[in-house]
Each structure stands twice: as C-alpha cells, then as structure tokens.
Amino acid sequence: MAEWDGRRPWRTDAEIVARAQERLEHYGLSDVRGIPELTSKVSAATGKTITVEEVDDPVLVTTTALWIEFKDRSLILLRRHDPAYYRARGLFHEFGHIVFGHPACTALTNDPQMSRYAAGGGEVRGRVLISEANLPALYRNDVHESEAEAVASLIGRRLLRPRYEGDEEVFG
Ligand SMILES: [Zn+2]
Fold it and tell me: Of 26, 27, 33, 81, whose CB has the highest number of CB atoms within 10 Å?
C-alpha cells in the first residue's frame, strides 16, 4: 500500500466527473426528478430490488452509508439520526458505487458486527468512512470513492435544489 500523502483520498477531477456523468446517462439517471424515481431506475439498471434501511446502530458510528450486495437484492443502510440531506447524500454516494459496480470490501464483509446485515451471502460494497483517522486506510479506495462522490455530487446537484428554477429567485 502506498504511503498516504496527506491529501483527501477522493479527487473529483474532470476525468472522473466525466465518467460519472457517462454512467448516469448510460442508466438514464441524469434527469431524475426525485429519490423514488432514482431508486427505481438504479434498480432497473441492476435488475435487483433495492431496499433502503435506516438504522440506529453503533456499528455505523463512523460509516455514513453502506451498500450490501446480495445475489438478488441490494441493501443500503443509512443512519436514522442523520439529517435528511445527509442521508440523501449518502444514498447518492452508494448509488455511485452501484452504477460503477465497485467490488466488495472484504474487511467489512468479514466484520462480525456486520453479520446481522450481510447474513445470507451479502457482501459489504459501498462505504463512506469520514474521519481523519480513517483517511490513510482509505487511500487504496481513492478512485472508487472519487467515482462514487462524483456521482453523488451530480445527483445532488440535480435533486437537492428547488423543484422549480424560479423558486430560487426569491433569494435575489
Ligand atoms: Zn464510498
């Protein structure tokens, strides 16, 4: 593993953003109007049911959101007590991992604390560990996290805004 150079492990440089945009267009996700439509389109793209579960579990204390992939379904865990926009951002990030088809995180899959969620052949795949202490360990996931972040940011730009452009005018 390379020495951590002190930078954030995810870069959203132009090339990564372009690939994220290409993924969104490929799956018809660039013009979604809300989270239900987004979720059903991601589900149609993968052919798997997507369940989003909001949990209150110390196992997620440093994990904003988690994607657990099963043979026939995808499970996304969010933290119940996070603010709504933060949960939305975590969801978009996990969708980013899904549309890129990122591989499993073996360490988390084998973590006994995850067994309750991964039981029945689940693999822990997306992950967001946002804490300075965790950054070095994430270095090797740099590109995957960058890609997921780029997707999340593009979806967020699309969905986390007023329903009508004109609504913004009141702020002058
Ligand atoms: Zn991630």
Answer: 27
Which helix or strand (DSSP H or E) is residue 79 part of? strand 73-79
- What sign results for the dihedral spanned by CA atoms 36, 39, 45, 50? negative
The residue extents of the domains of the chain are 14-162
pTM above 0.85, yes or no: no
81-121 residue pLDDT tens: 999 999 999 999 999 999 999 877 766 777 788 888 888 88
Distance 97 CA to ligand 1 centre (A): 7
- Ligand 1 centroid, distance to 115 Cα (angstroms): 19
What is the whole-number distance in angstroms between the Cα of residue 152 and the centre of ligand 1? 10
E strand or H helix that includes residue 53: strand 49-55
